[in-house]
Design brief:
A: 590 residues, 3 domains, seven-stranded mixed sheet, five-stranded antiparallel sheet, elongated, B: 189 residues, mainly beta, UDP N-Acetylglucosamine Acyltransferase, domain 1, 3% helix
Amino acid sequence: MTSFTPYTYFQCPCTESSLPTHRLSDSSPPAENESSDDERTFDPRAPRANYSLYPLEHLFYCEDCHQIRCPRCVLDEIVTWYCPNCLFEVPSSTVKAEGNRCTRSCFQCPICIAPLSVSSVEAPPSGLGAEIATQSGPFVLNCGYCSWSSKEIGIQFEKPNGIFGQLAKVKNGGGPILTAKERRKDREDRKRDFSGSSVSEIREETPEIDVPREPLDPNEKLDAESQFSNLRAFYQSQLADASPVSALGFTGDYGYGSPGALSRIMGLYTGSTAFDKKAKSKSGAMREARDALEGLQITPSSDEEALVKLHAEGWHTTSSCSQRAEFPNSQAQFIDDLRPVAYLLRTKRSKRCKTCRHILSKPESKVQTTRFRIRLVALNYIPSISLKPLSPPTSSSSSSSLLQPMRPVQFLLTFKNPLFDSVKVTLATPTKTPGRFASKVTVLCPQFEVGANTDAWEEALRENGSRSSTSEKRRTKADFLEGQHQAEAGKVWERGRNWVSVVVEVVPASLSFQGPEFLKTEERRQGEGDKEVREDEDVLEIPVFVRVEWEADSAHDEAGGLGASKEKEGKEKRELAYWCVLGVGRIARD
Amino acid sequence: MSKKPVKGEYIETDTGNKVSRRSQIIGTTNIILGGKTVIQAEVIIRGDLLRTYTSSNPGEKQGNPVAVAIGRYCFFSRGCELRPPGKLYKGQFSHYPLKIADHVFIGPGSIIEAALIGSHVNIGANCVVGKFAIIKDYVRILDGTVVPPNMVIPSFSIVAGRPGRVVGEIAEGEVDGMDLREVYREVRN
């Protein structure tokens, strides 16, 4: 059996409004129907519940709304962008201009996502003065985890730094990648060189003409970028031809502002007659791309190549889905189509309350510091709840981790108060847990007060006396074993400076569908159809409604440290109520 | 404490370190313990893997060479191993010091070859932290993770998988819970 650690989850009230509708459709026990609103219970197994339950550590507390805030009801604001590998901060202007990847030398292995390191291909210098001599290139990127190397895709670098810039210029296999500007220039040059001669002529002529550039080949294979730029150039020229040159002379890139272009666009939607004829007369002038120069790529040819390659090299040379997902713009079907992946930037974010817009958490903007300027976590405002079995599990019983059905077990609920005021806690649980297997739950002491937290100084003093407190604990345990100290209804089990333990008695339900009729609940009779115990249905979860009341100094909120407001009125009654879920344990199947 | 010198599990040092009698600590002169650190049974610390590569500025070399430096309130669980990372540099193989800051928990059976581990780092059971990995503050590494060599893990990360990748972030409220003072206090002979 897998081990089970007791847990407590807190419900964020932001989802509360959506719960009743769900409960209405359920047939709740008749006793609860009478006053539906008050008696409404929280079902931790409801499909929605999963989205509102959080461990206390994940919750915030808004001091202005006096309410719990969960990750779903806060707003994130980016404070800093940084590279998770080199930990350099990236200004937001750079992020906008160059994208959300590290533009230094931080790369991930395209095969296994481990970080790549730069190393030299050459043997290290040896002999006299080897320490002073610097490594000479060429350099490659190496993966320390799966031993992949950029050599496998034929990429080497001249310098060990600025890899991002160098990689942007190299194709897999070592060929150069042209930038958009260069590509345009290249295309224009090539056009000029061969203008006047038809395509067929070029083909014949090419062997003779000794031009440095490749000839214009209509079936040329293009990569994604050059195809895009070709297409773009083609459509721009088409647009320029189609729309009359305006008085202002706008054509090309920003031609949409020209009256001609505008009227055409308007005509698209309104279909107005005035422009219709004009548009119709123009429509013949627009055509689609015809060859590679204009950005047309006929795909089947590349598929055939891929098939041939697959036949020759097998499945293991193809890339996996997750590997391909890193390259959304290119079809990286094979492993040698993959390229090193630049690290995605990470962010430091501050969090705001969605309702009142107050900041709940704000980290220092520097990447290296881990401090927070503001950090209003629920941990500092709400009593934490921990759960453990009352009687220490005896080593002899092997099945002690499982709860025995129909046998009462007692658990110790410990509330620890983080506030510097003492709080009054009221607990409420449904007598039977919701779900098909209803266990009986009794909180022996549903109302108690938890003492105030003290500051760090007192805690430090306590540190020395910690030994005595543990001996006290042991005594109570011994008392329990002797049977002197019994769990009594209405009484707190144990009490500390800022914590209180109370006893909860649970009678776990039986997971079998047989058994006397009177034991069956309404839900179970309905669910007679499927007699399987569903996943995690054997986990005993208790919904607990916790109400916390305390008196806080309101002066603390409104007017900082004003000495004048030292009155009785300075105290303000606060109240907070929320649902919790206690995961107690798994029930043994019989 | 006790009347007879009954040998307990741990040897407690002046600075409050609790070192198990059944741990293997090699090269003790090259290991620095900040204090209040717990070293459980079968833990291996390789202080003998010293730096052999002479550093470029000779003024730096004074006193004892350090192979492993550990801060305060660290906890090394049963059977974990700390070894300084080593690599070839300019044709010479050398180990480099392993630095561990405060409140670092290392789970049972994990092997650590990192260059640096920051404060409040929790490494689970049976993990491998590769050579020259740098782990910053407030990081949780889940059980069975293999952190690849040279990986840098930024603060507030949760890392899992083989190879390890950042799978989540440490929530603001979890920061307090990563303090190991309480854990140290609970360790008794």
